[in-house]
Amino acid sequence: MVNPPDTVSVRLVAHVPWGDDLPDGTMTVGAEPGWGAFEVPGPRQVPVRAALALAAGPGGVVARVLDPDAHPRPVAVRVGPAGSTFVPLPGPPLALAPRADGGLWMLGADGLRAVGGDGVAGPALPVPGVAAVAADGDAVWVVGLDEAVLVGADGSVVVRAPWADPLGSVGLGGGLGRLDAGEPARVLRLAPDGTLGTTPLPGVLSPFERLVRASAGTFLTSTVGELVRYDDEDVAAHLTWAGAGLSTDGDAFAATVAGGRASVSRGDGGVAVLDLAGAGVPQGRVVAVRDDDVLVWDGSAAAWFRDGEVHRTIDVDDAVFADQVFPHAWRADAPYPFVAGPDGTVLVASSGPTGAAVLAVRWETAQR
Predict the structure, then answer these.
(1) How far apart are CA 132 and CA 59, in angstroms?
(2) CATH number of 7-364
(3) pLDDT tens-digit profile of 175-218?
(4) How would you class 57 by CB atoms within 10 Å of its CB: exposed for 0-12, middle for 13-18, buried for 19 or more?
(5) Contact 151, 193 (CB under 8 A)
(6) Mean pLDDT for the chain?
(7) Rounded average pLDDT over 143-153
(8) Which of 139, 213, 270, 333 is the most buried (most CB within 10 A)?
(9) How far apart are CA 151 and CA 69, in angstroms?
(10) What SS3 string covers the chain?
(11) What would the pLDDT profile of 250-291 be if each residue is shown by its tens digit?
(12) CB contact set of 226 (below 8 Å; sequence gap of 6+)
């Protein structure tokens, strides 16, 4: 057993079983989701499941329900400490934002609507946009390609301001934040009164980096498959993501990888360290945990580990993936799966054999 340099802990927030509103359907796609146009070894056709797309804010956590083809269904999931509830919607949502009154904001093709927890929808407000970001007091930012509009809890427009990068924008209390990759790199902040502020960041941002959270001189960002933490003076740490889901006994797991080794953290506090490079799966994703066994998949190869040691390796093609990997696999395939959660956690949604799981991950960096 090797102690990882950073501590990653995980807990289950909600398990949403497959059912009528979250159907256990699959479809086969012609390229591995999230890998883009890169030519990679392994199966050419892979099945994918329905998924949850999370949105969090002062009013709680909600999620869109995405069919396997990534199209949203006209239903939302309200995630709460007492369990998850489905909220019917008047149409497929482009984006959602939670409200503390038990309802949510829905951004659709016809504008913005307030929807109660019982599914009763208010009239469409003529506020078009691409993204919805929850703000304090049940307000919501509707963010378009070149403008952000703050809408109050009563549906009135509070402020309009020039703004860009809707998909990279996050809530900062009552305001908005996003990254600006200029020189120097910085965090842009849009206050509820429409004034703009900036905070410089150390180092150079990657082309695909997005802001996750900004608080007390610490900034958390994400790239494709990686979390990055900045402090006031330097880049504090990088964390490479390698999967999350539920074990067969319902315990949460989250995996990270560094130096050819994966650290698999369990909700019960246990951590297993796996030698991926030695098993021939150096870029592997941890997709399943079964008792003391861990399944890692890396394109054309997969390996089962038992008690931290390689137990069995598998050559993977389309048929083998569908028969021996996919039935066990938990996947969080969104390129940017991380959403800022409460108490300094990061939320991730993963889909697997028994439904969808919402997980809270806490990352504590070691002293450098």
Answers:
(1) 13
(2) 2.120.10
(3) 999 999 777 789 999 999 999 999 888 877 888 899 999 887 78
(4) buried
(5) no
(6) 90
(7) 97
(8) 139
(9) 31
(10) CCCCCCEEEEEEEEEEECCCCCCCCEEEECCCCCCCCCCCCCCCCEEEECEEEEEEECCEEEEEEECCCCCEEEEEEEEECCEEEEEECCCCCCEEEECCCCCEEEEECCEEEEECCCCCECCCECCCCCEEEECHHHCEEEECCCEEEEECCCCCEEEEEECCCHHHCEEECCEEEEEECCCCCEEEEECCCCCEEEEECCCCCCCCCEEEEEECCEEEEEECCEEEEECCCCEEEEEEEEEEEECCCCCEEEEEEECCEEEEEECCCCEEEEECHHHCCCCCEEEEEECCEEEEEECCEEEEEECCEEEEEEECCHHHHHHHHHHHCCECCCCCCCEECHHHCEEEEEEECCEEEEEEEEEECCCC
(11) 999 999 999 999 999 999 999 999 999 999 999 899 999 999
(12) 238, 239, 240, 241
Q: What is the CA radius of gyration of the chain?
A: 21
Chain segment 70-100, per-residue pLDDT in tens: 999 999 999 987 789 999 999 999 999 999 9
The residue with tokens 């001189």 is 217
- Whether residue 38 has pLDDT greater than 60: no
Q: Which two tokens stand for residue 325?
A: 């990997």
Q: Which of 202, 137, 190, 130 is nearest to 166 (CA)?
A: 130
The model carries a pTM of: 0.92
Tokens of 9: 């802990």
Go through the chain and tell me how many residues it has: 368
- Tell me: pLDDT of 4 over 60: no
Q: What is the pLDDT of residue 82?
A: 77
